[in-house]
């Protein structure tokens, strides 16, 4: 099957042959497959997405702007389901309750290794960043550090918390290795417990993702001291789909990806920043408009791990995305979150995004979210 798939993938380039490729790649129908109808028919989709994870905000744009209505067959319906974390979306996709997932790199990778339950594939990239899931915060009364590297050295012997198994865990452990740092305690805590610990002064530091990082900083509960930009470490988010959807309805896959491309282009345009923040306010609770705007668009100082480019938008599986998937899979295997050190070849399917880019005359990356000065925020 693998030889056949590889041979087919080299010669099939048109829409018609893409269908053949997909059937060869995902295999024959199984008893556990869902029924998505025939090509051209209306479809009912349930999309899991994470408005509480800024790096996956093309999902927020998709829900708010409904770009998919331009491309899906008439009569189709789309329901968006909020996932507080990627694992919730993965579990729903495995159970057949959701069909498309906007998730971080870690849950996206894990989802492809559960094919004994359901076959899930990575079909695109939502974003790559260095200060989205890779942000070091310290308690608010920590010293004033001269540089991010000095702040990181301060972590020796301190109590540091992360949600283990997440992108922040991989990042933190890599930084500790690079910078020869040994925390006094390395705690497995969720975002809510981390927030409480920083508020009460019980934690010295934590590694968290946006928009929680900006909320804790702007509310005065923590200090931002470093990010992946400080040590050249990136993170990412991925678009996943069930294989039965891909197999039965490649027309829907392409339709959704065309809409996703529109969403990423919209995200990259700075004139849309305030409207995007307002969409995020409508789709979340507990976050102010300014916090949400800051989490995606604010230019933080370099002394705090700030970077000019808040988010790169690859759309397809570029070499950088491939490298991140490989590195993250190795890490997940090392902590026994997945049973293989490398994903099966068919787990990642870039052919759809590549075809969409070719048809629309674009190349990857398709854009980037550039950091904006605080004066650019014109909201509430």
Description:
41% of the residues lie in helices and 18% in strands. It contains 16 helices and 12 strands. The chain folds into 2 domains: 2-128 and 235-372, D-Maltodextrin-Binding Protein, domain 2 (3-Layer(aba) Sandwich); 135-231, Periplasmic binding protein-like II (D-Maltodextrin-Binding Protein, domain 2, 3-Layer(aba) Sandwich). Strand 1 (44-49), helix 3 and strand 2 (77-82) form a beta-alpha-beta unit. Helix 3 (58-65) crosses helix 12 (250-268). It is an alpha/beta fold. Mean pLDDT is 92; it is low at 1-24. A 5-stranded mixed β-sheet has the order 2-1-3-10-4, with helices on both faces. The longest helix has 19 residues, at 250-268.
Set out the fold topology.
Blueprint: H1 2-11, H2 15-26, E1 44-49, H3 58-65, E2 77-82, H4 86-94, E3 100-104, H5 105-111, E4 120-129, E5 135-139, H6 148-154, E6 159-162, H7 167-179, E7 185-188, H8 191-199, E8 205-208, H9 212-218, E9 222-227, H10 228-231, E10 235-242, H11 243-248, H12 250-268, H13 273-283, H14 289-297, E11 309-313, H15 319-334, H16 351-359, E12 367-370
Helix pairs in contact: 1-2, 3-12, 4-5, 5-15, 9-14, 13-14
């Amino acid at each position: 099957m693998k030889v056949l798939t590889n041979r087919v993938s080299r010669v099939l380039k048109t829409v018609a042959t893409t269908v053949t490729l997909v059937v060869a790649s995902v295999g024959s129908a199984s008893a556990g497959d869902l029924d998505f109808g025939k090509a051209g028919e209306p479809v009912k989709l349930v999309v899991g997405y994470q408005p509480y994870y800024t790096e996956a905000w093309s999902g927020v744009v998709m829900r708010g702007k409904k770009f998919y209505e331009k491309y899906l067959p008439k009569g189709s319906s789309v329901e968006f389901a909020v996932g507080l974390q990627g694992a919730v979306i993965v579990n729903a996709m495995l159970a057949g309750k959701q069909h498309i997932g906007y998730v971080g790199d870690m849950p996206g990778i894990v989802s492809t290794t559960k094919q004994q339950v359901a076959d899930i594939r990575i079909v695109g990239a939502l974003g790559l960043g260095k200060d989205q899931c890779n942000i070091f915060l310290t308690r608010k009364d920590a010293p004033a550090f001269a540089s991010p590297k000095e702040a990181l050295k301060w972590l020796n012997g301190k109590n540091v918390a992360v949600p283990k198994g997440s992108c922040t865990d991989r990042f933190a452990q890599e930084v500790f290795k690079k910078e020869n740092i040994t925390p006094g305690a390395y705690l497995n805590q969720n975002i809510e417990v981390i927030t409480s610990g920083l508020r009460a002064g019980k934690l010295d530091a934590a590694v968290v993702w946006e928009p929680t990082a900006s909320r804790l900083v702007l509310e005065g509960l923590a200090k931002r001291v470093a990010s992946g930009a400080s040590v050249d470490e990136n993170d990412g988010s991925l678009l996943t789909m069930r294989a039965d959807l891909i197999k039965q309805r490649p027309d829907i896959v392409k339709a959704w990806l065309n809409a996703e491309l529109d969403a990423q282009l919209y995200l990259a345009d700075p004139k849309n920043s305030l409207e995007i923040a307002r969409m995020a306010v409508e789709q979340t609770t507990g976050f102010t408009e300014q916090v949400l705007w800051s989490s995606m668009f604010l230019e933080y100082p370099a002394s705090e791990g700030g970077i000019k480019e808040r988010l790169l938008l690859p759309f397809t599986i570029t070499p950088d995305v491939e490298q991140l998937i490989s590195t993250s899979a190795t890490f997940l295997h090392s902590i026994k979150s997945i049973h293989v050190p490398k994903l099966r070849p068919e787990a990642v399917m870039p052919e759809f995004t590549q075809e969409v880019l070719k048809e629309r005359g674009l190349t990857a990356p398709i854009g980037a979210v550039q950091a904006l000065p605080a004066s650019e925020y014109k909201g509430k």
